[in-house]
Amino acid sequence: MANSNLPRRIIKETQRLLSEPAPGISASPSEDNMRYFNVMILGPTQSPYEGGVFKLELFLPEEYPMAAPKVRFLTKIYHPNIDKLGRICLDILKDKWSPALQIRTVLLSIQALLSAPNPDDPLSENIAKHWKTNEAEAVETAKEWTRLYASGA
Amino acid sequence: MEPKPMDDIDNTLQNSGLSAPPITVKRTVTSTGARITTQIKEDDPEDSEEVKPVKSLVEDKVVVSENVCSDCLAGSVEGVKSSRTRFEEFIKAANTKIVSEEECLKTQRKEEPQVNNEIPEKSVKEEPDVGFEAKAPSVPETSVKNMSYQEWLQFRGYAKSSGEGTNSHEKKVKPEGLETARFANVRVREEPRLFAENKVNVKEESVRSSLWSKPQGVKKEKVEEQRASAGLVEDGDFPDDPDWFLVGRTLVTALSTTKGRKLVDNEIVNFTFPSPSSRYNMQWIVRFSTKRSGEIGRLPMEWAKCVVPLVCSNKVKVLGRCVAAPANLSLMQEIMLYVSFYIHHSIFLDGDKSSWRLDGCRSIDSTVYPLLTLFNLLKNKPFQKADFTPAELDSRKRLLNLEGDSEEAASMLPIVKRGKGCQQFPEQNKDEQTITESSLNKLMGAAEVYNLEEMEPPNTLLCDLRPYQKQALYWMSKLEQGIDVEKAAETLHPCWSAYRICDGRASSIYVNVFSGEATTKFPTATQVARGGILADAMGLGKTVMTIALILARRGRGCPDNEELDTKTADSAQITKKRKIDSHINISSKAKGGTLIVCPMALLGQWKDELETHSEPESISIFVHYGGDRTNNPNVIAEHDVVLTTYGVLTAAYKSDAEDSIFHKVSWYRVVLDEAHTIKSWKTLGAQAACALSSHCRWCLTGTPLQNNLEDLYSLLCFLHVEPWCNWAWWNKLIQKPYENGDPRGMKLIKAILRPLMLRRTKETKDKEGRPILVLPPTDIQIIECEQSEAEHDFYNALFRKSKVQFDQFVAQGKVLHNFANILELLLRLRQCCNHPFLVMSRADSQKYTDLNKLAKRFLETNTDSSTNQTVQTRAYIEEVVEGIRRGDNMECPICMEFADDPVLTPCAHRMCRECLLSSWRTPTSGLCPICRQLLKKTELITCPTESQFRVDVESNWKESSKVSKLLDCLEQICESGSGEKSIVFSQWTSFLDLLEIPLKRRGVGFLRFDGKLVQKQRERVLKEFSETKDKMVLLMSLKAGGVGLNLTAASHVFLMDPWWNPAVEEQAIMRIHRIGQKRTVRVRRFIVRDTVEERMQQVQARKQRMIAGALTEEEVRTARIEELKMLFR
């Protein structure tokens, strides 16, 4: 079957993710592809994303853990480091990847990124600009988007 | 509609009991066109006479029915007139059809004489039902139907009025003529059939007229006509409807659901079908009613089940009338209905040749198809039968009654699919499932003598082929040519049956007996895959054979066979059309040569071999990998051979799906090397390979079946072998039976593979009975070892402990639930046979003298190199060292397994050496995965391997009996001075670790090869081993290696520990015993007497028998438990 060659590490990580999920994060593998995870991250409290439920997809490439997992937001989100396709600007997903990192740590990092947007290293120029010029307004927009796209569903 | 007066009802009812059976027969006859050929000649003159009045009718009709070209009609009528002369032509053109039609109706014809002689008077009334009235409530084409119904009335009126005052004979002819006209009307669309249909009609007519002319019949008809205005019984004729073709008619015994005098003979019944939204238990209930009395009864389930989906598809309608029913109905009484099935003409139109599935959107797993069922129920036999049908496979009785313990039975199968308890030993489990070479041969029917012709390779091939390789070349060429295209286009695809329906106007209907798909387009055998599986055993030169094929048969894209197809009999036009369609489809793609997909490790080898074996400049080779990629499909299509890896193909498919560079090219040939790589059909890789567009497809693999029958399914999918690339069929007919121990699954798979797969082994003999490949002999011996007393005591203690536990499981009846635990018990016993050190308990209070050394060195190193790097606190380091001292085997943060060959970084992080090094971009330095500190390889501290054994093996070193024997053997070889090299296999790397100690002590030079080496290191070790003169021993883990490993430098093989499955050992030996081996290969297997090892030998033998199917079902059932008990005896 498709998952017969799954490395032990992925199996273990999956088991742990399911048995002891990180707070505010749920990740469950897709049934037909154990390398593909459906992820939900709750917007961190005291962030513009509070109250939102953000869906993401996470895929472990063949080379994992020697290569970083591929993660993308599926839910629309207003964030300077996340572009409109949901791609995330996060160093550990790029050049700062280390095989000692795990799905859990990656997702926690993303959750942290929601708490601490970094407009100085933007992926979405417009949003970053907005953030830098008028943070209050940008935060409002982020809240609005959270309400619009990430509430409930 | 001719309502009957009430007083006639009694009359009819009285007759009904008597008349029913003969009527049945009569109807059967009239409903077909079966007698064309037998009667046509005598009746012809009459026909043409009688048809004349038709002409005028037809002309009238042209006025009435709007869109019929009058020219055509005239032509058709002329056809009717001159039918006698044209008939000869027709026979010539369509004689096959007539023959088959006859065949199909043979049974009915037998009854013919009876009809004509005995019951003519009864048949009169039934005659007109050739054109039943359209009255199925759920048929959508109401407008069409209404119109035709009106027309029909009009005609009817015409017939009546014109018939007034004329003699009865004339009256008869006219309605018949109407029918003819109508038939002609339809026939215009089906030019080639025109004359045939006319013939049918004319003949029917003649039969009828002869019947009609009998006095009784005429009388009765007259009576009916007179009563036509007053009655309630709806028993008129069904009008002929040009849009609906008669499939067939039959008697159906329905059941009444009402009481009373409800039904008279010949009364039309209307069917009511459940709506798609009907509740579950209602969905198969088909009721019928009459206009007079409302609901009467319902159809039997077997009919309802096939009719409901068909009628819901709107392509089929059902009409019926009562032929025999008790005068006074009570509940659940049998009512004989005479039911006609019609199929809508739209499916026969040229414009719509797309296939249709009458079963609508039923689940893919369904293997029951309504149209096929209907044909079966109507006893409509295909005039051309599929080569193999599910019915044949199903009809044989099931051999195995599983008695509800399928789970257990399945788990006892030799090839375990679900080993629930084995999760803790995934690797073990994996190996255990591997099928041995010999059992593979049995499954696949190899080692038979292949009597194939040889084909000389082209002179562009620079190496000589052995005879068996030339045979492979011949075989592959033949398969690529397929059955010659012309023949293929005329040959019905093996999975399809051809049916003809009663209505002669309709063309044949082809039904795929496996998918239920139906079509009117001729499914040709050209759609069958070209290619196959070259499954020669490892080492026979599959690569070279393939290169020879590439050189011998060059091509680009999908060759155009169009001109060859046109001759095809009655499907020529259709076939051509299809060809053109597909041609358009393909021409948008670049036409490529051969695409070879192989594992990354073999990419270089393929390129080298292609270059060395083919004449320079004779072919162009392009490697689509790494930096040498292009995005232009035309570029890769330019080359004769394109090499790529499964990874690249999969990645391309993943990002661009059908638009990937590989899928944009129409290949001439796709070759999958080590094709078992795609054995999991659900993986993207397998799908990517399947989706490639190619003329020919090849799988190269020495192990077409690795550990599961499902592996083959994926290959068949890639090869596009129908119907087995349909999961439902594969699962139903092969996978399930096989898993349930039903031998038919295996039989079938053998039958499927026979034409598709070529498999020879080194034992295969040629025509003269000589082996196809002469290799030096192998000499396999078992070396029995006797444990020393100390060893034996240790083993016994361990054995007793394990046995107590095992007996507990047996007593609780939980053997299979504790499979993993039991395997672990056995593992320890087996390791103990190799060397007791392997199982020395963790609680052992040996002093880790080395550890202190280590800690000291570690701390020193750490302070030394602490120039500008973060230094861990002393406390932390001490904790780490203490952990190591305690024997805490920590989990490697990278592979998340217990660290194997762990190293300590200067920053005091522990992980597997292998994991750390492979995370680095350069071999000598990289970052710590945990703290990102820059590390050099030289700074790494090897954690004491001693911790693995929990005793200081080096200072307490003692040889086990097995180790002593091995060392003796190695020394003998060394002393002989023959310069022969040895390979020592064990399944435990820790045992190889142990072996290093005595080898070092005795100064025996050795190399080591195990799973921890990365590809580059492996190549280096193998190269060194084949060249070295000092290191004569290679320690190798049984599981390492894999594809293409060539170890012919050695001629001595030592298998240190028996493995569950002989296949793994066989594979190991195979790496040494292959082309290029010049010496006798001496294999020594070490077995410790009176231990679990000895019993494992018996299990192995038993397993062989089990895979070979020599065990009875009962034996298989208890095999697993028995096996285990055997080990603990």
From TrEMBL, chain A:
Superkingdom to which the source organism belongs: Eukaryota
PROSITE patterns documented for this protein: UBC_1, UBC_2
Keywords: ATP-binding, Ligase, Nucleotide-binding, Transferase, Ubl conjugation pathway
Domain UBC core, first and last residues per copy: 5-151
Top-tier EC class: transferase
Gene Ontology MF terms: ATP binding; ligase activity; ubiquitin conjugating enzyme activity
EC number, UniProt record: 2.3.2.23
One Pfam family in the UniProt entry: UQ_con
Signal sequence residues: none
Gene3D superfamilies cross-referenced by the UniProt entry: Ubiquitin Conjugating Enzyme
Family: Belongs to the ubiquitin-conjugating enzyme family.
Function: Catalyzes the synthesis of non-canonical poly-ubiquitin chains that are linked through 'Lys-63'. This type of poly-ubiquitination does not lead to protein degradation by the proteasome. Mediates transcriptional activation of target genes. Required for postreplication repair of UV-damaged DNA and for adapting root developmental programs to suboptimal availability of iron.
Record's protein name: E2 ubiquitin-conjugating enzyme
Species of provenance: Ricinus communis
UniProtKB/TrEMBL annotation, chain B:
Keyword Zinc belongs to the record: yes
Keywords per UniProt: ATP-binding, Chromatin regulator, DNA damage, DNA repair, Helicase, Hydrolase, Metal-binding, Nucleotide-binding, Nucleus, Zinc, Zinc-finger
Bias (Basic and acidic residues): 105-128
Domain Helicase C-terminal, first and last residues per copy: 962-1129
Region Disordered, annotated ranges: 1-53, 105-139
Classification via InterPro entries: Helicase_ATP-bd, Helicase_C-like, HIRAN, P-loop_NTPase, SNF2-like_sf, SNF2/RAD54-like_C, SNF2_N, SNF2_RAD54_helicase_TF
Cited Pfam families: Helicase_C, HIRAN, SNF2-rel_dom, zf-C3HC4
RING-type domain residues: 892-932
Recorded GO MF terms: ATP binding; ATP-dependent activity, acting on DNA; helicase activity; hydrolase activity, acting on acid anhydrides, in phosphorus-containing anhydrides; nucleic acid binding; zinc ion binding
Bias kind Polar residues: ranges: 27-39
GO BP terms: chromatin organization; DNA repair
Subcellular location: Nucleus
Domain Helicase ATP-binding: from-to ranges: 523-722
Top-level taxon of the source organism: Eukaryota
GO cellular component: nucleus
Family: Belongs to the SNF2/RAD54 helicase family. RAD16 subfamily.
Protein name: Uncharacterized protein
Species of the source: Castanea mollissima
Source taxonomy: Eukaryota, Viridiplantae, Streptophyta, Embryophyta, Tracheophyta
